[in-house]
Amino acid sequence: MDTQVLDTQVLDTAIATTADLAGDLAVIARAEAVRPDVAAASNVIEATRRLPPALLDRLHEAQLFRLLLPRSSRGIETDPVTFFHVIETIAKADASTAWCLSQAGGCAMSAAYLDLPVAQAIFGDPSAVLAWGPGPKVKAVECEGGYRVTGRWSFGSGSPEASWMLGSFQILDDGKPRLSPEGKPLYWRGFFSRAEVEIVPGSWDVTGLRGNGSFDWTVHDVFLPERRTMVHAGVPLDNQWDRWPGVTYSLPTQCWIGPHHSAVITGIARAGIDALIELAGGKTPRGRTGLLCDNPQVQDAVGRADAILNAGRAYRSAMITELWNSVAAGKGTTLEQRARCRLASTYAADSARQAIDLVYRHGGSTSFKRDSRLAECWRDLHTVGQTVTLAPEWYPIGGRVYLGIDPGPRLR
Predict the structure, then answer these.
(1) Radius of gyration of the chain (CA)
(2) How many CA atoms does the CB half-sphere of 395 hold within 13 Å?
(3) Where a domain ends, among 234, 266, 301?
(4) What is the DSSP letter of 179?
(5) Are 328 and 206 in the same domain?
(6) Is 256 in the same domain as 229?
């Protein structure tokens, strides 16, 4: 069976519950058209730990880095279901490329925290790409018109391709971090041009997602104008996206942060299932006379993996749709709805993990060979699964909401 057809049907069914939220088929078609180019470049991406220039040009041509930008900044301004479908589509071809698109999309939404002329200056170039990195030890000193910043950030996904970098930092007053009125540490985020940044060679050496270029990066005594900064008010950032018109930007952060990474992992899991299906149709295991696909245990694993994966995906789509409908009707969202949205993204990731482990096990010795597609999917998926946005701690956070207990600052 064509699992791509089945997968699309499941998604379409999940979003058909509303007339307001329907995937942008033109955008999805562009992603599908680019997918063969992504797959063809996968080995080069893995070896060089970055996206090759020719592929980058194709991604820009399809405007896949601009899906979450508003039209005022020459963006596509798409909805979350479309965005996650695009990320899944690309992840089926190459996980690192999907991760870079996912991160860049989320970073692009930070343009809402800037004055419009500044946002347009950063994203006005149609080939603009923004990457970011956490940097709690980065320090800045206030000066006329802005700050002097020195420090090092990690996890700068897509940094080799980026034209701008977004980094967190603290401001020092007399050598001490600036505090909030409540006495808590304050953090800012700033936009640095790529020319102001140095990438640290060899700082991204990992088992999975090797090609996403999540290198460390540094700046040294760089002047950062105040107009290119924004307050990092909390974890997650307070939603100022509603400064832009439209339902997409009125959605709470829980519709984006977490679900955007879960789309990468569910796309990889689908690729893993497809890899076992392809292998099973041509491999005769050692000591056997029949093909792998004739083994009832393999048949069971493929069926179970598909059901488990799509259950997680359907839950995620249903929760995104529920919040979309609520916002579109002018009702806002409840804490319980936001909790379910984050739980759905974590559960979708866990479902993907279960699915890939099922098919990996039945690939036999092929599964652990370095050039095996199953091995690649397994490595990449488990690397994505380690991100904090999909961590198991979201289950007790959601549980506290249902029990009427303060969930803490990570869920508002």
Answers:
(1) 22
(2) 7
(3) 234
(4) B
(5) no
(6) no
What span, in angstroms and rounded, lies between the C-alpha atoms of 3 and 279? 14
Number of domains in the chain: 2
Helix (H, G, I), strand (E, B) or coil at 185: strand
Tokens of 74: 């020459």
Q: What angle do CA 7, 10, 15 make, to 5 degrees?
A: 130
> Residue 330 is part of which domain span?
251-412
Cα separation, 69 vs 128, whole angstroms: 11
Tokens of 354: 């279960």
Contact by Cβ (8 Å): 352, 48: no
Q: Give residues with Cβ within 8 angstroms of 223, minimum separation 6.
A: 143, 145, 146, 147, 148, 149
Would you say residue 137 has pLDDT above 80?
no
Is 348 part of any domain? yes
Cα 339 to Cα 336: distance, rounded to the nearest angstrom: 5
Q: Which burial class, exposed, middle or buried, applies to 10 when counting CB atoms under 10 A from its CB (0-12, 13-18, 19+)?
A: middle
Token pair in block for residue 179: 């505090």
Counting every residue, how long is the chain?
412
Mean pLDDT of the chain: 88
Q: Which of residues 216 and 240 earns the better pLDDT score?
A: 216
Query: Angle, nearest 10°, between helix axes 394-402 and 335-361?
Result: 140
What residues contact residue 403 under an 8 Å CB cut-off, 6+ apart?
none
Q: Report how far residue 5's alpha carbon sits from residue 332's, in angstroms, rounded to the nearest whole number.
A: 34
Angle, vertex CA 157, rays to CA 160 and CA 74, nearest 5:
80
- Residue 229, both tokens: 């900064």
Output the six-digit token pair for 329. 């009707």
Within a domain: 341: yes
What pLDDT was estimated at residue 378? 96
Q: Which residue type, as a one-letter code, is found at position 218? A: T
Q: Assign 21 a pLDDT band (cuts: 50, 70, 90).
A: low
Q: Taking the model in full, what pTM does it have?
A: 0.90
